[in-house]
Amino acid sequence: MIDQTALLESRALRSSVLDRTDVLDRVKTLALLPDGLHVTTAMVAAYFGVSVEAIRQIKARHREELTANGMVTLQGRDLREFKRDILSRYSGSYPQPRSGLTLYSRRTVLNIAMLLRDSGIARQVRTYLLDMEHLARTGLLNESADHPAEPATPEILSLAALDARIDQRVHHVLGRTVVPMFNALIETSGEHHRRLTALSGDVRRVENRLRLHSARLRRLQGSW
Question: Coil, helix or strand for 151?
Answer without folding.
Answer: coil
